[in-house]
User: What shape does this take?
Amino acid sequence: MLRLDDREIRPFGQQKNSESREADVLSYKVKEFGHTLEKVIADPPQPQNSEVLLDVSVCGVCHSDVHLHEGFFDLGDGQKVDATRVINPPRTLGHEVLGTVVALGPDAKGVATGDRRVIFPWIGCGKCSLCQSGNEHICNRPQAIGIQRDGGFAEQVLVPHPKYLLEFGNLPEEQACTYACSGLTAYSALKKVLPIAPDESLLIIGAGGVGLSGIRLAKEVFKVAPIVAELNRDAWEAAKAAGAREVVDPSDKDAVKSLLKSTGGGVAAAIDFVGAGPSFAFGFNVLRKAGKLVCVGLFGGSTPISPAMVSMKVATVAGSYVGSLEEMRELMQIARSQALPALPVTMRSLADVSDALQELRDGKVRGRIVVRP
Assistant: This one.
């Protein structure tokens, strides 16, 4: 288990006074990929132009933080995507960030000191055609918080423009921050396959942090109680509590046949929040004709899919990556206006963030770990 040097760490929950704000800001940075995050104490960033500085209240710990910390995404079968090219150490990870505005650049309009906001982290270059069309989350020159820009595993975070700061109303902080990635990723994927007719079925594969967000949003926002495929039976009760109408074990040798029969020929849509070879194959195999499979997860691996079967099923296979700023605005409005089932959250001190990453790596986390400075 990774450990941190806890010297100079303030007691959990103790706030800095105004004098210390000018002197030191604590963060935990990737300095060497795969090594323990390094504690750094430095002068606070000074917002320029339209930038906004926030004191971090909470920050979710996402499974993608594990890959970014390691410096690669493992695709399985010996293939890896190099993440060292997009991160320039030293870098502070953490993209599910919520905080309080404490300083503004001279051109920052629309927020004031003391405002509490959740941050949209998926920032693009702002100039390319993707950004201009509202899709900066898939910009080819990204400037995402916690990846290309320093993120929320810190006491403060600098955001380039107030438009990326969203109100969260009376939502608990530890829930609201998860909408920046877990909730947004699930919401954007659901929008790609819904609506679904009342006599048709939606399959959600995986009941981890993002999968649980997908289940609860499908049930509460889109009024579809999904079928959930989950290997780990310890997660079944959480899936049912989030709104699953039934949970199946995709490793069961009769699972595909049973699901095709119970749904009258297959599901209308499947969302794979795992992204492994077997999970992708399971989702494709249980599609009805003209069904849609959306792949979200990044677990890795591969599976043989016959191109002829894609044609014969008239299937649509698509990827989905986080979500747009407009989608996050929609999601936060929904979350502020109606009660959604809470995502299971474990609160930890910021000092324990490396341990949190290791627990995610070991598959020991249900829902989300959220750290607080």
About this structure: Residues 325-337 form the longest helix (13 residues). Residues 1-21 have pLDDT under 50 and may be disordered. Residues 144 and 272 are 24 Å apart (CA to CA). The longest strand covers residues 52-61.
